[in-house]
Design a protein that fits this description.
8-stranded antiparallel β-sheet; 3 helices; about 180 residues; alpha+beta; about 20% helix
Length: about 180
Amino acid sequence: MTTDALPPGFTVDVATAMAPDAGRQRPGPEVPCADMIPLLSATRLTGTPSAMAAATVSSAEGPDYPWVANEVIRTYADDGARGAMADLRTFIGRCPTAASPSQDGGSYRFAVAPGPRLGDESMRVVSSTTSGSITLEWDSILVRIGTTLVIVHEQGNEPGGDDHLTRLAEAALRSYQTTGP
């Protein structure tokens, strides 16, 4: 995504390093849900992309805190994009909640929620974590266009702080469709 594709007040910082995806591993029922949190939150996916790119998108327009999201583009040589989305739906169905691995008594919640209909297929993943009286949310919109996934993943905002997510997913999709991978 480029700055000119964003709403006013947003900046883009292209990533120079990214965490690898999970590859062909598809955790079975014996894997505890707490071990699957990166997969459940859509920060990692199954499959092996042939190319990946990422950027951090942010805005300091909020009254109390900046709004930050990551955009990730994953291109697959085969049907990996469709498989990654199907796996994510399956994993969330199996593990809608997970205990915090930090042993603080906190928990994580994951759900597939209604979202914008974009590309060939899209889904919205709603994630939250609670520790004591503090709840943080981070949502993702995944859009499949053929063998490519365009993902916009907002980072730990206060509940209800996802007001830019759909606009940024739409901008990321337009940018991808205009410039390609």
